[in-house]
Specification:
Layout: H1 20-31, H2 35-48, E1 53-59, E2 65-70, H3 80-83, H4 109-116, E3 118-124, E4 131-136, E5 139-140, E6 144-145, E7 151-157, H5 164-167, H6 173-190, E8 195-200, E9 207-212, H7 219-231, H8 233-237, E10 239-246, E11 249-256, E12 268-272, E13 275-277, H9 280-289, E14 302-307, E15 313-314, E16 325-326, H10 329-346, H11 353-363, H12 384-394, E17 411-413, E18 430-435, E19 439-443, E20 447-452, H13 453-472, E21 476-486, H14 489-497, H15 499-504, E22 508-511, E23 516-523, H16 531-545, H17 550-566, H18 576-588, E24 602-606, H19 607-613
Parallel strand pairs: 1-8, 12-14
Antiparallel strand pairs: 1-2, 2-7, 3-4, 3-7, 4-5, 4-6, 8-9, 10-11, 11-14, 12-13, 15-16, 17-18, 18-19, 19-20, 20-24, 21-23, 22-23
Length: 617
C-alpha cells in the first residue's frame, strides 16, 4: 500500500519573506544556544571595546538574568539603535572577511538577544552623557538619558521568554551556571591582562563564583599566573612553557607533563588568535604529540595559543565561531606536534610533583590531638659527616646482626662511598638501597627518590630503540602476493595522498585502478598484517582527526613490548654501581620520568615533607 507523502500538499507552497522579528529569532537559535552562549557574545563585545575590567552577573543559571559590565570605550547615543540592528557592526567594513582582528564581526548577537529576551543597554563614551536603550521580544524603545560613569552595562532578562519552547531544552540551573563559568574561564585564559569576575545573584544573594585579577609583567609570566588562577596551582607547577614558530604560525602556551594527565579531555584549552575554539585538527595534534607518553585512556592537559595572520585562517565557518579552518592545516598540526615534543624532551626526566603529594597522602597517618601545652617537636638536621659517623657507630657487628636471618632478604643497603663530587648533588641523587628487588632508594640533597627499576629501564630501552629506528628507518617486508584492498575512489585518494609518509613507516601502497589499493610492503616489525583492516583504521583516523598515526602507533607498540622484555626485570638484585648507572642514564634521557604508559618511574619526597609525616616540624 502506498503511503501518502507528508511533504506533498494539494496547495502549491508560496515563498514568503519573513519579518525582521522572525529572522532575529532564527538567528538567535544559531548564535544563542544557551545562556553561556549569550555570556560569550557579550563578554567578547567587552573585550573588543578595549575593557580592562569585566564583571558578569547571572541568576538562575543565566535564565532570568545576565548582566555584563565593563569599562570599555562605550557606545554613543545616536549609535545605540544601530547596535541593535542586524548585521550592523563597528569591527569590519565588509570589504575583507578574512582580515578579522576582533572576536565579533557579524553584528548578530545583540539583535538576536533582543529578539528572544528583554535586553537593556546602558553606555557612556568619554566626554558624553550616558544613554540607555531597551528592546523586548524584538520591539525597540526610544533612547533615553541614563546615569553611568563609564563603559557599558548590558542586561539581559528572561532569556527565551519570547520563544518559550526553547526553555524546555535548557538544562538545570546548576548545569547552565557551570557552563557560564567554563565560558568565562576560557575567555579569561586568553586575556591575562584583563580582570574578570563572575557573580551568581540567584535568590537575591550575591556570591562570587570566579575572580581573576589582571596579571602584570611579561606575557609568559602573566599567562602562567592566569592559568594558575583558572586551572589551579598544580597545573602551573607541573606544566612546561611552549614557544615555537614556523612559516607565519606562532605556538605559545603551557602543556602539562605526561605524569600530570587526566581521565578525560576536560583540561584541554585551545585558542586561535585569542579565540577559544574546539577544533578537531588541533585536538588531534595535541593527542598525537602525547601519543608516545600516555595510554589511550589518559588525556593530556594543556592551554595552547596559535597566533597567525588572519588571512591564514577562516573563522567564519561556524555559527558560534567555535571552529576554524586553516589554509594549511598540515603546517599547523606539524607545528603543534613538533613544538610539544621538543618541549617535553627538554623537560628531561622531570615528573609531576602531584605524584609525591599523592604518595605522602597515602603514607600520612591519622594525627592525634596534642595537649595544648605541648610545644611542637623540632630537631636540627645533622650534617653529612655526623650522619656518616652515626651510621658507622650503629652498624651491627658482622658475626651477630641482631635480626632473625631471612631466607630471601627483600632489602639491601649499599655502603656510602665518598665521591669527588657527591652524587647527592645530582637530580636523582645517590643509590642507597634496593627494596623488594624492584625499588631503588636514592638520597638527594633535599630528600629522597624512590625509583621503579623495571619501569625506568623499560623507558630507557624504548627510547634507544626509537632512536635506532629514526636513524636507520623502518624495515619493510615485501609481500609475496600483494594484497588488493577495494575502497571508494575518495578513500583511495586520501590514502594515496599519504603514500610517501606511509612508505617511511614501511607501508608501501600503490593505485590499482578505480578505488583499489595495492599493498606491496608492510612494516617487518609487525609480522603478519591484515592490510585491509589497517588501511580502514587509517581512513577512520583521517576522517576523525584529519591525520593518521595508526601505523606509527602499532610500530611503537611493538617497540614498547620489546623494551619491556629487554629491560631489568622485577626481582633482580642490582649492585650499587648498577643502580647509580641507571639513575645517571635516567637524568640524561628525555621522557624517562614516565614509563611507556604514562605512569611515573620515580617519586621524589622532600625531607621537609618526610619530617612532617613524623611530626618533626
Amino acid at each position: 500500500m502506498a503511503l501518502a507523502n507528508p511533504k506533498i500538499t494539494p496547495n502549491r507552497p508560496v515563498i514568503r519573506q519573513l519579518d525582521e522579528t522572525a529572522i532575529n529569532r532564527i538567528a538567535a537559535g544559531e548564535v544563542v544556544e544557551r545562556p553561556s552562549a549569550a555570556v560569550k557574545e557579550l563578554v567578547e563585545n567587552s573585550i573588543d571595546a578595549g575593557a580592562t575590567r569585566i564583571e558578569v552577573v547571572i541568576a538562575d543559571g543565566g535564565k532570568t538574568l545576565i548582566r555584563v559590565t565593563d569599562n570599555g570605550c562605550g557606545i554613543t547615543a545616536d549609535q545605540l539603535p544601530l547596535a541593535l540592528s542586524r548585521h550592523a557592526t563597528s569591527k569590519i567594513d565588509g570589504s575583507d572577511l578574512l582580515n578579522i582582528h576582533s572576536f565579533g564581526f557579524r553584528g548578530e548577537a545583540l539583535p538576536s538577544l533582543g529578539a528572544v529576551g528583554r535586553l537593556t543597554i546602558t553606555s557612556r563614551c568619554g566626554g558624553e552623557e550616558a544613554s540607555v536603550i531597551a528592546v523586548a521580544g524584538g520591539r525597540m524603545e526610544a533612547v533615553k538619558p541614563a546615569a553611568l560613569s563609564e563603559g557599558t552595562v548590558v542586561e539581559l532578562k528572561d532569556l527565551f521568554y519570547a520563544t518559550p519552547a526553547r526553555l524546555k531544552f535548557l538544562r538545570t540551573d546548576r548545569a547552565e551556571a557551570q557552563a557560564v563559568t567554563d565560558t568565562v574561564k576560557r575567555l579569561a585564559m586568553a586575556e591575562p591582562f584583563i580582570s574578570f569576575s563572575l557573580v551568581d545573584a540567584s535568590g537575591g544573594n550575591r556570591r562570587e563564583v570566579f575572580r581573576a585579577d589582571a596579571e602584570q609583567g611579561e606575557m609568559f609570566d602573566a599567562l602562567n599566573g592566569r592559568l594558575a588562577t583558572v586551572l589551579g596551582r598544580d597545573f602551573a607547577e607541573n606544566s612546561i612553557a611552549i614557544d615555537a614558530e614556523r612559516d607565519g604560525f606562532h605556538l605559545t602556551g603551557y602543556a602539562a607533563l605526561p605524569t600530570y594527565s587526566r581521565g578525560s579531555s576536560v583540561a584541554q584549552f585551545l585558542f586561535v588568535n585569542g579565540r577559544p575554539v574546539k577544533d578537531k585538527l588541533l585536538i588531534g595534534a595535541l593527542r598525537g604529540a602525547y601519543m608516545d607518553f600516555l595510554s589511550r585512556d589518559r588525556h593530556p592537559a594543556a592551554a595552547l595559543f596559535v597566533d597567525c595572520n588572519p588571512q591564514l585562517v577562516d573563522v567564519n565557518v561556524h555559527p558560534a565561531k567555535s571552529e576554524v579552518r586553516f589554509r594549511e592545516p598540515g603546517l599547523v598540526r606539524g607545528l603543534i606536534v613538533s613544538g610539544l615534543r621538543h618541549a617535553l624532551a627538554g623537560a628531561g626526566h622531570r615528573a609531576s610533583s602531584t605524584v609525591a603529594s599523592e604518595t605522602l597522602g597515602a603514607m600520612r597517618p591519622e594525627q592525634p590531638t596534642a595537649p595544648v601545652y605541648q610545644a611542637p617537636y623540632r630537631v636540627e638536621r645533622p650534617t653529612y659527616t655526623a650522619r656518616s659517623t652515626s651510621y658507622d657507630m650503629q652498624a651491627p657487628a658482622p658475626e651477630y646482626s641482631g635480626f632473625a636471618e631471612m631466607s630471601a632478604p627483600s632489602a639491601r643497603v649499599e655502603p656510602v662511598i665518598e665521591e669527588a663530587k657527591p652524587l647527592e648533588a645530582l637530580p636523582l641523587g645517590a643509590a642507597r638501597a634496593q627494596v623488594h628487588e624492584n625499588y631503588i632508594i636514592a638520597q638527594t640533597e633535599t630528600g629522597m627518590v624512590i625509583v621503579d627499576q623495571h619501569a625506568a629501564h623499560e623507558r630507557l630501552v624504548y627510547e634507544k630503540l626509537k632512536k635506532q629506528m629514526a636513524e636507520n628507518g623502518v624495515a619493510a617486508q615485501a609481500l609475496l602476493i600483494p594484497e588488493i584492498v577495494e575502497l571508494s575512489s575518495g578513500d583511495a585518494q586520501m590514502l594515496l595522498d599519504l603514500a610517501d609518509d606511509l612508505t617511511k613507516l614501511g607501508l608501501t601502497i600503490e593505485p590499482f585502478g578505480g578505488g583499489a589499493i595495492c599493498v606491496r610492503e608492510t612494516p617487518a616489525i609487525l609480522g603478519e598484517v591484515n592490510a585491509d583492516a589497517m588501511l580502514r583504521d587509517i581512513l577512520d583516523e583521517l576522517a576523525d582527526l584529519g591525520d593518521s598515526t595508526t601505523v606509527q602507533v602499532r610500530i611503537e607498540a611493538i617497540l614498547s613490548r620489546v623494551a619491556c622484555h629487554g629491560s631489568i626485570r622485577s626481582g633482580r638484585r642490582m649492585r650499587g654501581e648498577e643502580m647509580n648507572a641507571l639513575l645517571r642514564e635516567m637524568e640524561a634521557t628525555p621522557h624517562s620520568g614516565q614509563c611507556n604508559h604514562g605512569r611515573p618511574t620515580y617519586v621524589e619526597l622532600r625531607l621537609s615533607d618526610i619530617e612532617r609525616l613524623f611530626g618533626r616540624t
